[in-house]
């Protein structure tokens, strides 16, 4: 099967025969129909799914709103319901709220806890997304330090900060996060952020491990001021296993309550390998 699109008109072909059409204006589906002799075989479902996919409606990170006319027959109503359309007045509406990722939850938590100024550390800067976020928290009066063991990550991060206008606030350096204490004095950091795993877009054979991550988190706690936050997103899966995640969780659970408040935020209806946001607040 093939779908050809021209000026908002989508045509579904089976071999060389046009068996279905749809007309779309932005995110409004004006018409969707399948040739009568091909109905009831899933072609309408295939066409609608492709319309949504090509216009961002299946992207879990994107907020979308699609509308369509109210269907007149039961098959049309069933198809609309299958893809999340619901009656809203004189039309159908499909609203998609973006999934909340572990990193987004981490950022939201830190935004509510931390104030501008001070020292922020991105201990695993990667491509610089978290480092740039910390720069927005630190503001012009603050300072952000990014660390990574890969030169590509350091270069990518510094380029991102410069392009976003944060070159005077933050910088990344080539340094092992396990030796964080060499760069950050005890009791001086407002936040140390870890996003474990591997450099996005690079080979997966270089990734964080428990041998380096646990000492790094121990050093991070020493670096924090009272009221400061250690934030970590833990990962597990086929490539990296779960040894690092389990070691980090054991480390967190062993921290004394008199000195730290520890939060482990689990997405209860996600897979066991879902990223795990964790927070340690120093007392």
TrEMBL record:
Keyword field contains Transferase: yes
InterPro entries: Acyl_CoA_acyltransferase, GNAT_dom, MnmM_MeTrfase, SAM-dependent_MTases_sf
Keyword vocabulary terms for this entry: Transferase
N-acetyltransferase domain span: 1-116
Domain of life: Bacteria
Membrane spanning residue stretches: none
A GO molecular function held by the record: acyltransferase activity, transferring groups other than amino-acyl groups
Protein name: Acetyltransferase (GNAT) family protein
